[in-house]
Amino acid sequence: MNEKKPMEKTEDEWKRELTPEQYRVMREKGTERPFTGEYEAFWENGVYKCGACGAPLFDSDTKFDAGCGWPSFSAPKANAQIEEHADRSFGMVRTEVTCATCGAHLGHVFDDGPDPTGLRYCINSVSLDFEKK
User: Fold this and answer.
1) Active-site residue (options: 53, 99, 102, 122)
2) pLDDT tops 70 at residue 1
3) Extents of the domains making up the chain
């Protein structure tokens, strides 16, 4: 886990820095519509980073097509800046994934992914930036 103190910004600062859709998803824990995100069917080699602060999150070699409509990864990058939290919203129990550096909502992790981890990190495209290798 990240030992760095989380990035501290006011909600007004976030509203100025993020697009309205990024703000809705990353700060208000929203979800983009399935099959609409920039990185859902994107397969270049590189690193996916937090769209709010740039912290490295996932390597492209862990990305797979889960058919769910959002970018899916089998594991975070080594030393990734993510945290997991219980999410009991909408009458279900899920595990929310957030950026440990800035607190941005990224998506959720489920236990229906491929080997070797068996995990599916289902992440909103709008919560990501991409750096090509």
Assistant:
1) 122
2) no
3) 11-132
Cα 97 versus chain centre, distance:
6
Q: What is the rounded CA–CA span in Å between residue 2 and residue 56?
A: 12
Query: Quick one: which of 60, 56, 66 has its CA closest to 113?
Result: 66
Cα separation, 58 vs 42, whole angstroms: 14
Beta bridge partners of 49: 56, 129
122 is annotated as an active-site residue: yes
* pTM score: 0.91
Kindly indicate whether the domain formed by 11-132 is annotated with CATH number 3.90.600.10. Answer: no
Q: Cite the DSSP H helix spans in the chain.
A: 11-17, 20-22
